[in-house]
Amino acid sequence: MTPEASVWSASTTRGEDGGLEVGGCEVAALAAEFETPLYVVDEVDLRARATAFRTAFGEAFARHGAKVDVYYAAKAFLSSRVASWMKKDGLGIDVSSAGELELALRGGMPPKRITLHGNNKSDAEINQAFDVGVGHIVVDSLEEIEVLTEEAERRSVVAPILVRVTTGVHAGGHEYIATAHEDQKFGLSLASGAAMEALRRCHEAPPLNLLGIHTHIGSQILSIEAFRESAERMLRLRADFAVSSGFEMPEVDLGGGYGIAYTPGAEGLPLEEAARGIAEAVAAALATSGGSWPRFSIEPGRAIVGPAGMTVYTVGVTKTVTLEDGGERRYIAVDGGMSDNMRPFTYGAEYTATIVSRMSDAPSVRSRVVGKHCESGDILVRDVDLPSDVGRGDLLAIPATGAYGRVMANNYNALPRPAVVAVKNGKTQLLIRRDTVEDLLAWDVAP
Questions:
Q1: Given 124, 323, 374, 445, which residue is catalytic?
Q2: pTM to 2 decimals?
Q3: What are the backbone angles phi and psi of residue 381, rounded to the nearest 5°?
Q4: Catalytic residue list contains 25
């Protein structure tokens, strides 16, 4: 049995005994060494995807004589080692908190290749951005312009600014990850005029260096049409502001949100098709709006790290229940759950699973993979066909969990968060160690 290629990292194979291997390492051996649940990251696959984004978009925009920068979206998954990979592979990093900024710096990312986002940046985070000299600070509200102006004046420096624009384009796999509609917390509205007002204020504030505009329309987007429409609106705004102010902004950040496949038969957004389509949309929009080509940037995260990761679990209790239609479903409980993957619980995200510790010739049965938490909604995979003999002690793996698994992990029911281990050419590298019960006790203030 060979894993479905579309949802597993490139180096994932099955050995002769039926055990899954990734990066030249046996998954069963990884589970024995690092315990389960366990996040496994295929380093070669992750870095190849990062390079592919830089290459595909670079070539697509170069056909029009333009340049584009790729910033890895730290929110998908970040460790200092991942930051070092992004540096080596020619990407920058966008961050949205002090912790993400420190991890990027710890990995050696030059501050000028870091963009600081956030709809509610604290004074400490703003000061930290000034202290290290990040390349961009993304303004998310009119109030923030005043805060940044005052801090820049106090320091006698000029702050590099992008203004986040809410374009009104609806995109994304779930309401909670669609981020450019009007009624939500991010950015400044294009329709209401708030975005134009923010640009005017930034341009007229001497301590602020208005470099350009930024947007992010959502996540898990599977069509370029939303990107096309967003780019058209952004470039029209840029042209309108150039007319009103006499200043043509040199940069436009089109954000991220490129979708990936999570289940067999599903398709992600093809990278080269997306790069060509977005570059052509930009060219057409500029031909209509007028003006010179700005320097563009994009911010993929999920599409780089998501397919490169899997989560490995140990099976515990199994039980069969009778359904209303007279059929049956087998429940397979594993040693993790919503504490290591919140996406099914929060967004209704769909995944698949497979047995990875051995081969099975048993007939498949309709199964549901669930966690061990005190919630009936603690479901990792709602419906999947798995061998009927899956039982206690078997290992299951869920692919495409490299993005948002570890970064959204929690200690619900006082469970330790899993480790993250990278694999490459038969060798392992621990990226993040597993929580311990001692950690939990250390955080607790005893009576």
A1: 374
A2: 0.94
A3: -135, 115
A4: no
